[in-house]
């Protein structure tokens, strides 16, 4: 459990599990995931209060978003990255355990895809807007103010897990993820976390200056900036699955393109109705 610089390289060997009780282990990733929701809730409460919306409505939204994120991210990983395996083990998509050689094994949800999470959130927003009669674009414009910050927490969790690592690098801030190998690599998770924090600051500043922007404008800016950053930063990452080898653009980049196109449409479209 050390982090030290040797020959201009950072060695990272933190145990991702904080403590274990039986088959249960509390991981830094889980704490980061929890922090993402707590911080997002606090900021969204400020937004709802500012715009005269009730906390009860936010509580309902939070449930939808939590379930949409978890279900979408899980299914996204299974379907986008490991389809061949999970199509033959469909129950493992939704169950946090499996039977291994006749014995019960608690696995948790090993594998979450951010693009799947994005689809899950959009689906949850659609269902929420229909259930509560809340304008979809209005709530999307506000929710995207906090999503980048939540994404930064998740990527920090990935760093603790020594996963989603970068390509080999000779830069002075290169990191050796000792749990994987002894190769100095780009800390791609931290690149993303920093990018998402910058995007959060940009969107939050825009909202503070104009609390009633053109409907869909903040949503569009979010899609272009966040998935544009994701597309660019994928060039610094190792491919996550073997099938991506030899592809000009990996799965993360291909999945980012439709979101960026949707964002450009929202930015430049002329809204039919500016009412909230």
From TrEMBL:
Its main location: membrane. Its EC number is 2.5.1.145. Pathway: Protein modification; lipoprotein biosynthesis (diacylglyceryl transfer). A 1,2-diacyl-sn-glycero-3-phospho-(1'-sn-glycerol) binds at residue 155. The chain crosses the membrane at residues 28-49, 61-87, 107-128, 140-160, 188-204, 216-233, 249-268. It is a multi-pass membrane protein. GO terms for cellular component: plasma membrane. InterPro entries: Lgt. GO terms for biological process: lipoprotein biosynthetic process. Catalyzes the transfer of the diacylglyceryl group from phosphatidylglycerol to the sulfhydryl group of the N-terminal cysteine of a prolipoprotein, the first step in the formation of mature lipoproteins. Belongs to the Lgt family. This is Phosphatidylglycerol--prolipoprotein diacylglyceryl transferase.
